[in-house]
Structure formats: C-alpha cells, structure tokens
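It is worth pausing here to work through a concrete case rather than discussing structure prediction in the abstract. The textbook approach is simple: state the sequence, then state the predicted structure, then interpret. We follow exactly that order.
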Amino acid sequence: MNARLRGYRPAPLVRASLWLHGAALAAAAADPALWRFLLGVVLADHLAMGAAGLMPRGTALGPNLTNLPEPCARRGEVALTFDDGPEPGVTPRVLALLDRAGARASFFVIGVRARAHPALVREILAAGHSVENHTETHPALFAAYGPRAMGREIARAQESIIAAGASPGLFRAPVGLRSPFLDFLLARAGLSYAGWTRRGRDGIDADPARVLARLTRGLASGDILMLHDGRSAADPAGRPVVLEVLPRLLDCLAARGLRALSLPMALAAAEQAAAHHAREQAQVHPGEEQIVAPVAEV
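Step two, the predicted structure:
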C-alpha cells in the first residue's frame, strides 16, 4: 500500500454514506419489516451522492484543486490547462502560441492518444509543460463506472502516459464528473484531483468571443483555466476555436500582469514559499516551535 493510500481519508459525505449503509443493513437485520423505509433512505443517499458528482468544482466527494494556493495568487499567477489531446493538428500550434508568450501549461491527455502520439507528449514536456492523466479512453459515462472499470481507466492511462515519457501526478475526470469511488482510486494510484476555476466550453462552442468571455469574466490571479487542444469545436472554416481564443487569452493575461504556469510549477512554488516563510519565522523567533499551515493537498 502506498503512502498516499495509507493517509487516505474519505470525504465527510462519503463517510456518512458508508455509515448510513451499515446502519441500514443493521436495522434491516433487526427488523425486516423496515425494508421499504430503509430502501428509500438508501436511494435518497445515492441521489445525494450522484448530485454531488455532477458539480465539477465541488469538494463533497473529495479534494478538488479549483484555485491555485494563496502564494501563487499573491504573485499574480494563473494556471493554463488543456484537455483531450494530444492532437497532431492542434497541439503543436498550441505549444507555439504558448512559447511565444513565455507561458507554461498542463496538458491533461487521453491515454490512447498519448500512446498513439508519444513524440507529441515528449514535445509538450520538452517545452516545459506538464502532462497529466485524463483517463485512457475518455468514456462519457466514466462517473457512472464501478470501481473496477474506473480504476482500469485511470491505471491504463497512467501506463500509456508513462510509456510516452511523462510522469503524471494529477488527474481530471471527463467533463469533470466524479463518483464516490474516485478519490480512493486516485489515492491508490498516487494521483491528486485537479478541477478548474473557469472553463471556456470550447469543446462545444465554436464562437471565440463567447469562449474568451467565459475565461476572462471575473478572471483573477490564482485561477485555473481550462481549454481543449483535443476535440476543440471548429468554426465554419474548420479551424479549432482554441487557436482563435488562445492568442487573445494570452494577451489578456499579459495586460493584467498575470503569469501563466503549469499546475506542478505553481504547486511547487507554493510549497517553496511555505518553506521559506517557515525559515523566516524560525529566525525571528528562535527556539520556538513553529506551526506552519501546509499547502492544501489536492
């Protein structure tokens, strides 16, 4: 059992659900006549868990990185993320745009695509970006899978991406939908969950103005932005909308003094800031035991 799993603790809602199921079984064994009432209670619990899984930015089912840690926000940093690649006709052009702007990003790739295009994965890494896990096949019903099938999607994607040369530490579910099993399975795989603050919905909307507005309306330091380098909607001429939106988004970030980082870069910088603060406090108050709040684990 890995260290992450040894420290795994279910979210309060999941713990409550487990307790409720155990109590319902015990009550049914003690008084079988209660079975209709107990079945209703269990079904209501399942509905509540399902509703929690439909909220991509929610934390009811486990930790969810939807904003960068506070030290990153203070420094004016944001995170750019791209889903569903790599795609040969789009990803290299996204990389070129990022390079011209001096921006870094995280690419949540699909395992079968990473296995089909390992050179693209290596190109992403060579440019200073990170490559993360976005399941093996991007199944639309991923959140409805049982733990065995869900675990296979995560593990096979990890194998595919590692074979291409990357070492993912983060995971994002297809469409951001989750289930009560996911947090445990990620802990077993040594992965953390990453959501977003704002998404452009460029996978379904080919209007650059609308996509950009979703990303920039209320934009603030510490935000995590999500676009698609794979399966991006196309305009009538067949041009992926991400290639229209990204240059404008990068200009907007520059105009607001915001710096785009990959998620691992941002999290590592936050850890370093916390360690630096601890050292400063130790120098100011030598001999006193310091209690430093850790950067939130995701």
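Step three, interpretation. The radius of gyration is 21 Å. The chain has two domains: 10-53, 70-264.
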